[in-house]
């Protein structure tokens, strides 16, 4: 049977092979056009999604500032935590994927770590460390978030530990993510990723991006410690 079908077309109408060939070509062109439309549609959707991301104002940096003493002690214990690699980008491109990553890491750490003061935890007023035992205060949350984000491919240089005066007038630490859409804040007091003005905080200083010295933000006065939970 197969041999008879594959021969020169015995019993088939003249031109049958050409009609089949043209039908196949037509279907291939159709599929190609559909694929192109879907591809362009996906690119357009991505562009629209990126455009829909809100812009956040940048927090102006001023003269060098001294870090809090607990940061200096952390650097003595963990020098790599304080090192600045100037070959890394200081600003990251904000995409929907990265925006989602920031939100997920912020929520996960906030839910995972139990708040405790440094005095109750370590017996000192202010200590910066990783909350590897499941307990910590504000700066410990942010250090863990930064480590997780770096492990997921974000440049450490664009993730800056930052000191603020919070809504109750106390020293507090947050993580500032520097992006091409502005500076975003990760905070253990909220699962929302916010712009700096939306936090209601007074921004005092943050890690520098070109060396170990910190930089003043908005010409703010510096708190002595960040021992706020």
Structure, explained:
Helix 5 (96-112) crosses helix 7 (138-151). Strand 2 (114-115), helix 6 (118-122) and strand 3 form a beta-alpha-beta unit. Mean pLDDT is 82; it is low at 1-13, 31-40 and 42-46. The protein is globular. It is built from 8 helices and 9 strands. It is an alpha+beta fold and 229 residues long. The protein has helices spanning 2-6, 16-52, 69-77, 79-82, 96-112, 118-122, 138-151, 196-199, and strands spanning 61-65, 114-115, 135-136, 159-165, 171-179, 182-187, 190-195, 202-207, 214-217. The strands form 2 sheets. Strands 1-9-8-4-5-6-7 form a 7-stranded antiparallel β-sheet. A two-stranded parallel sheet has the order 2-3. It holds the Pfam family Peptidase_C93.
Which short descriptors sum up this protein?
alpha+beta, Transglutaminase-like cysteine proteinase, Transglutaminase-like_Cys_pept, two-stranded parallel ribbon
What would you say about this model in short?
Helices cover 41% and strands 21% of the residues.
Number of helices: 8
Q: How many strands?
A: 9
The strand line-up of the biggest sheet is 1-9-8-4-5-6-7
- The percent range for helix content is 40-55%
Q: Give the overall silhouette.
A: globular
Low-confidence parts: 1-13, 31-40, 42-46
Which whole number gives the mean pLDDT?
82
Radius of gyration: 28 Å
For the biggest sheet, the summary is: 7 strands, antiparallel
Secondary-structure element pattern, one letter each: HHEHHHEHEHEEEEHEE
Our estimate of the beta-strand percent is: 15-25%
C-alpha end-to-end distance? 83 Å
The chain-level structural class is alpha+beta
In terms of quaternary structure, what is this? single chain
């Amino acid at each position: 049977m197969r041999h008879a079908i594959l021969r020169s077309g015995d019993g088939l109408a003249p031109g049958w092979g050409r009609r089949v060939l043209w039908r196949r070509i037509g279907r291939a062109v159709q599929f190609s056009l559909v694929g192109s439309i879907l591809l362009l549609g996906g690119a357009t959707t991505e562009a629209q999604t990126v455009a829909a991301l809100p812009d956040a104002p940048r927090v102006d940096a001023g003269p060098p500032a001294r870090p809090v003493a607990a940061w200096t002690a952390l650097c003595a214990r963990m020098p790599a935590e304080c090192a600045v690699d100037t070959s890394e980008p200081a600003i990251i491109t904000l995409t929907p994927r990265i925006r989602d990553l920031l939100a997920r890491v912020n929520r996960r750490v906030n839910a995972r770590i139990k708040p405790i003061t440094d005095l109750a935890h370590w017996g000192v007023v202010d200590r910066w460390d990783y909350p590897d035992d499941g307990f910590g205060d504000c700066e410990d949350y942010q250090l863990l978030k930064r480590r997780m984000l770096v492990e997921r491919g974000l440049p450490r240089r664009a993730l800056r530990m930052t000191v603020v005066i919070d809504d109750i007038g106390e020293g507090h630490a947050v993580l500032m993510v520097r992006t091409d859409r502005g500076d975003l804040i990760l905070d253990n007091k909220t699962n929302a990723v916010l712009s700096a003005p939306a936090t209601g905080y007074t921004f005092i200083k943050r890690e520098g991006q070109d060396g170990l010295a910190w930089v003043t933000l908005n010409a703010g006065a510096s708190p002595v410690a960040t021992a706020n939970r």
